Amino acid sequence: MVDVTKADRLASGQGSAFADTLDRFRRSSEFVIMPILALIVSGVLFSIFLLALGKSPADFFSLVWRGGFGTSFSWQNTLVRASPLIFTALCVAIPARLGLVIIGGEGALVLGGFAAAAIAIPMVPWAPAPLLLPVMALAAIVAGGIWIGFVGALRHYRGVNETIASLLLFYIAVSILNFFVEGALRDPSDPNKPSTMPIGRDNMIGAIPGTDVHWGLVFGIVLCILLYLLMNRTTFGFAARITGGNLRAAQAQGLPVGKLMVISCAIAGACAGLAGFFEVTAIHGKANASLIAGYGFTGILVSFLARHNPLVIVPVAIFLGGIAASGGLVQRRMDLPDATVLVLQGLIFVVLLVSETFYGRLPFFRSKGDL
Amino acid sequence: MSKFELNRRSLLKTSAAGLLGLSAAGLPRMASAAGLTVGIVYVGPRDDFGWNQAHAVAAAALKEVPGVTVVEEENVPETIAVQKSMESMINLDGAELIFATSFGYYKPFVLDLAAKYPDVQFRHAAPLWTDADPKNAGSYFGYLDQAHYIDGVAAGLSTTTNKLGFVAAKPIGTVLRNINSFLLGAKKVNPNATVQVIFTGEWSMPVREAEAANALVDAGCDVLTCHVDGPKVVIETAEARGIKCCGHNASQAPLAPKGFITGAEYKWATIYKMFANDLTEGKTLPNFTGGGFDLDFVQSTPYGAGATEAAIAAADEARVAVKAGKPIFTGPINKQDGTPLLAAGASLDNYDPSLDQTDYLIEGVIGSIT
Amino acid sequence: MFEDSGIATVLMAMFAGAIRVSTPFLFVSLGETLTEKSGRINLGLEGTLVFGAMSGYAISYHTGSPWLGVLVAGLCGSCFGALHGYLCKLPKVNDIAIGIALMLFGTGLAFFFGKAYIQPQAPRLPSISLGSWTDNPSLKQALEINPLFLLGIVLAIVLWWGLKNTRWGLTVRTTGDSAPAALALGINVNQVRLLSTMVGGFFAGVGGSFLSLYYPGSWTEGLSSGQGLMAVALVIFARWNPLYCFLAALLFGAAGALGPALQSIGISRGYHFFNAAPYIMTLLIMIASTSPKRSLKGAPGELSITK
Predict the structure, then answer these.
(1) Which parts of chain B register pLDDT below 70?
(2) I need a labelling partner for B184 at 20 to 30 A (CA). Which of A148, A242, B79, B204 fits?
(3) Closest chain C residue to B215, measured at CA
């Protein structure tokens, strides 16, 4: 409808090009201004919460700023925490385009990390890093891809609800990891933290020069751009969006819905698997229960806040990474429990979702032609 | 508010000192405790009635030291998060001494940071530090298996079915060592005793811990103990089922007014108080601090209503012996698969390093590691 | 001989486990059934359950009355339900997403306010001994039954009967099957859904209080381990039938007892998988019992997850 009026106006030659650009800019600014408004509202609500507890909101927000973004150390802290969230958020965002809600990305992360570490065990003695790392990454992609791809297949071919199935598979993935890590693949030299054999310091992925931030962040950003192009500039992405818009219409048009679902879910799982790969190769150097750190679940939040747009995932992940990074400082300085961050995240999540309802309803963002 | 101000002031002071320290690397940084900021990181909630709380309560001793500011962070997972939390304490709070209180923090996180920040001291609560590790890192630990051994002695005289139950979290070295010592204690006074173990697979999963406790009772065990983060549920279940129990980590005596025998407790307070004194005197903390009953690093919970006179007498006697250095691991001991661990007459010192690497259960323990 | 007694031990443990563990699953799945019957899905019940566990324990500790704790847990649950019900009626607001958000929010609030209650001991709910006739100690123990379990059974029957036979039940079902049809009948769709979600939240809160006040009977941050979410899965394989919810909850409880029980008779190799038995079983049942061709019998037509 909007396009029609725009086309009409263009056709009739009304309005200068400048006014038209301004108008278009104002309408698209909705997607930037609305989330910011929602953040402000969450901030106000959270301030009321803090005031009710007798704590100073000003202190709180200045600490969040300082701990998350205020110093160069804080920035690095934030970026390190954002990196896995970018990957796990993609695991939610891609299937969401088809209308699927996947909440078990953590399982694909765990298995991806495990597969990478497991395949490295026989290779470490002879393989150089340039061979080892791609093979590990591939193992992580395949493991994660199969895991969530299976969810997509179940959904299409058996009608099993994907939200529940992915969650169940998370618990199963954890038991697989623990079974091997505490059993057959356990490094006998470290009895106190059951882990696979370390891949060795020389094989680990280092930091971006001049920082503490490992290369996973860069890969994550590149992946976001690639997947944005896939979902918005290719026929695959177009078909996926049609399926997400109306499943029956897509089927009626003869779109290969099943294939789309399985492939999208497999891509999603591969992203989460890569998160596990970077955890193993950049952080831990081995697979162990520390892979189960909740990144997959925070990724759900990131993806929803980014409205499942791969490009928006990057800033949102950095934003939430910053909140997580400052959580410690808030605990230490204000004597607030660690759950404070959870409350704030939950509040932001709720308010942002509710803000959806105002899109297209505030007069400011509507073009004159619509009124 | 005042706390915040204090932190800010000490931050300014220490960041100035930090600049000086960089230019004069190698100078002992802990020459004076004045203005020292200590950071403590916990893996779970500070008031979990278990491992983390035991540390938090004891570490409060550090706050008594004049001039020392303590900053604490709870629920920090064993991921990059802990590295960043410690770094944040160093960079934003000016911490010069860090206590990292969870096993998985050590490798790689504490080691990496110790190398990166040579002027900051790191101490980690597990017997993992070796000479090869950075000199500004270190370990402190209480050997709780000695107290589990005493529990075993008391339990061995309290059972009528000769079956003792052990709810364990994960098959890691310290847990296996505690199980083995518990059995050795029981066998010392009751050669027929066996220990049946159920692994829950998680450090904290209350429903499964309760199920495991019930399953052990159903299998005929009449004394229960455990090694999980929060033993509350296991102890309460044992009491509800009308059997006896031994505690772990902290005193659970009030939870089982009828069946509580005794319990194995860390006494972190001794260690943290020692550290506090060292800081007051301006000394650098030792790289390795470890001990059991001999150094008052572990203790037995005062006996509850479930302890018989015979059990009390035997346990008291055993405790005196262990305190004097009598070895717990005295041959003949076989591993679970029948391979000999110690021949008859041979023994392992209670602080033998090989025991830190325990990756087996001994004969008489029912239940496998994998 | 050993084999026989081993199997008997495991079966006994599963029976006992089913009774011990099933209650929270039962309450949450009954609540979710009602909510879903009205056409909405509330994934936030996990948060509601955790908050119910915390608030019930706190109230029991402060007042000394565990039953008051149960009531308050339920009321807190219905507050979360009301929030969910109210927000979801706004246009373009997705009920699944709001559920996930409320799960995070509820859990966060429960952890935030729950710190002070991890250590204190609160009075717990009493149990009723139904096993006085038997000499078998395990059986006797298994028949120590909590009143909430019995209440849950009654509730399941009432809900089953009520949904089928009362006007109120018809209203809920019509709303869930077709909002336009309900509107045509003059039903206030949003109000019915709001109330159904509130009642569902009440049940979930009560289920949470069972965890903290009876079994395992204390408040800790790791108390739930996903019970609230699993109950949502149970609703699907119980086909939105309250009676089947009861059976599904029992089955889930029994499967949860399998891991420890097998270890107790000496079968411990692969215990990680036995411990995951409830999840594996649920997944297998869902795979076996669903079909892409026809919509599920009993599934409300308006439900987003079955469309």
Answers:
(1) 1-34
(2) B204
(3) C261
Least trusted range by pLDDT, from C46-55, C94-103, C264-273, C297-306: C297-306
8 Å CB contact of C220 and B254: no
Chains touching B (at least 3 CB pairs under 8 A) are: A, C
Residue A360's closest chain C neighbor by CA?
Answer: C92
Integer Cα distance of C307 and C305 in angstroms: 6
Residues of C in contact with B199 (CB under 8 A): 263, 268, 271
Whether the predicted pLDDT of A6 surpasses 90 = no
Q: Does B200 touch chain C if contact means CB atoms closer than 8 Å?
A: yes
pLDDT 10s digits, A89-129: 999 999 999 999 999 999 999 999 999 999 999 999 999 99
Task: Give Cβ neighbours of residue B141 (< 8 Å, ≥ 6 apart).
Answer: B125, B126, B127, B289, B290, B297
Chain C residues close to A168, C-beta within 8 Å: 233, 279-280, 282-283, 286
DSSP designation for B283 = P
- pTM value? 0.90
Summarised one tens digit per residue, pLDDT across range B280-328 is 788 888 999 989 999 999 999 999 999 999 999 999 999 999 999 999 9
Nearest to C233 by CA among C243, C246, C248: C248
- As a CATH number, domain B3-142 is 3.40.50.2300
B36-41/B97-100 β-pairing? parallel
pLDDT at C84: 96
Give the best residue of A171, A174, A357 to mutate against chain C (max C CB count within 10 A).
A171
CB C27 within 8 A of CB C206: yes
Burial environment of residue B25 by CB neighbours within 10 A (0 to 12, 13 to 18, 19 or more): exposed
Among the partner-chain residues C20, C118, C227, the one whose CB lies closest to the CB of B47 is C118
* Closest to A261 in 3D by CA, of A166, A141, A140: A166
Q: Are B94 and B14 in contact (CB under 8 A)?
A: yes
User: Could you say which of 3.20.20.20, 3.40.50.1970, 3.40.50.2300, 3.30.460.10 is the CATH number of the domain covering B145-265+298-366?
Assistant: 3.40.50.2300
**Interchain CB distance below 8 Å, C233 and A156:** no
pLDDT of residue C299: 79
- CATH 3.40.50.2300 in chain B is located at 3-142, 145-265+298-366
Q: According to DSSP H, which parts of B192-344 are helical?
A: 206-218, 232-240, 268-280, 309-323
pLDDT higher for A271 or C21? A271
CA distance B123 to B274: 13
Determine, for residues A353 and C94 on separate chains, whether the beta-carbon distance falls below 8 Å.
yes
**pLDDT grade for C27, boundaries at 50, 70 and 90:** very high
Q: Let me know how many helices (H) and strands (E) chain B has, helices first.
A: 11, 17
Q: Do C87 and A182 touch (CB under 8 A)?
A: no
CA of A259, closest CA in chain B: separation in Å?
Answer: 37
Instruction: Please report residues of B whose CB lies closer than 8 A to that of A71.
Output: 91-92
pLDDT tens-digit readout, A265-323: 999 999 999 999 999 999 999 999 999 999 999 999 999 989 899 999 999 999 999 99
Look at residues C300, C28, C43, C27 and name the one whose alpha carbon lies nearest to residue C169.
Answer: C300
Chains A, B: CB pairs < 8 Å: 104
CA distance A283 to B328: 39
Per-residue pLDDT, C293: 65
Residue that is written with structure tokens 């209203």 in the block:
C171
Q: Is the pLDDT of residue C92 over 60?
A: yes
The reply to whether residue B236 touches residue C217, judged by beta carbons under 8 angstroms, is yes
Is C268 within 8 Å of B206 when comparing Cβ atoms? Answer: no
ipTM: 0.91
Whether A331 contacts chain B with CB within 8 A: yes
Identify the pLDDT of residue B112: 93
